[in-house]
Amino acid sequence: MVVDLPFDSVLFDVDGTLIDSNAAHATAWTRAFREHGRRVHVTQVRPLIGMGGDKLLPAIANIEEESPEGRAIARRKKELFNELLPQLRPTPGARALLEYLDEQGTDLVIATSADDQDMKALLARAGLDGLVDKRASKDDASDSKPDPDIVCAALAKARSGPESTVMVGDTPYDIEAAARAGVASIALRCGGHWSDHDLRGALYIFDHPQDLLDRWQNAALATREHRGHG
Predict the structure, then answer these.
(1) In CATH, 22-86 is 1.10.150
(2) Which fold has domain 9-20+89-229?
(3) Which of 123, 144, 160, 206 could disulfide-link 211, Cβ–Cβ 3.0 to 4.6 Å?
(4) Rounded Cα gap, residues 178 and 150, in angstroms
(5) Using CA atoms, how far apart are residues 53 and 71, in angstroms rounded to an integer?
(6) Exposed, middle or buried, 156 (CB in 10 Å: 0-12/13-18/19+)?
């Protein structure tokens, strides 16, 4: 499969896309619920990772994020996740992909359901904190993915419109949010849990950032060779 790069801007999810953190999020949420007397199993939580707490809390326990209980669970979840953060690693090729796109002059924007504080910590842990200056997080939006608010906030910071922008993510929520904002998407399997059928709304599906980078580099090489023979 030859994959062209007809995009001026690329929006990147963070969790599961640039850092292998989805399982840690599921574990932290599950423990936080249990500590607050909610009988929750990690298998209930894992399919919802990729949403923000505004979606996950009502879906799991019918709790509003801004309620006293919701705020307490979310605060404890953050504490538990921060304990797991030092164990996390970037996904394969995450830094190489961002560096390559930057070298090509591609506009890069973060679009994550994490809040600003968590986003900074995740990017730092993945060794990516100095690579992308433009960022949109939960703090820039009313509703998290799969609502389009975060993608729209990222688009507002991008230099191109939706027709020449692509979203790279790892969950169906990334794909749906992008589609609702009028943006095409590329899905990565490295977030885990989701089947290719679940990710079918994406233009392409790749294993991880390195896989996507390899395809884009090969496409660029093929284009140069074609022009050289033209």
Answers:
(1) yes
(2) Rossmann fold (3.40.50)
(3) 206
(4) 9
(5) 10
(6) exposed
In the chain, domain spans: 9-20+89-229, 22-86
Check if the beta carbon of residue 164 is closer than 8 Å to that of residue 6. yes
Say how far apart CA 224 and CA 230 lie, in whole Å.
10
Domains 9-20+89-229 and 22-86 alike in fold: no
Whether this model's pTM surpasses 0.90: yes
| Segment 99-130, tens digit of pLDDT | 999 999 999 999 999 999 999 999 999 999 88
Instruction: Concatenate the DSSP letters of all residues of 109-138 into one string.
Output: EEE-SS-HHHHHHHHHHTT-TTT--EEE-G
Which string of DSSP letters, residue by residue, matches 102-113? HHTT-EEEEE-S
| Pairwise CA distance, residues 173 & 87, whole Å | 25
Tell me how long the chain is.
230
> Tell me: the pLDDT tens digits for 167-226?
999 999 999 999 999 999 999 999 999 999 999 999 999 999 999 999 988 887 776 665
**Longest CA–CA separation in the chain, Å:** 69
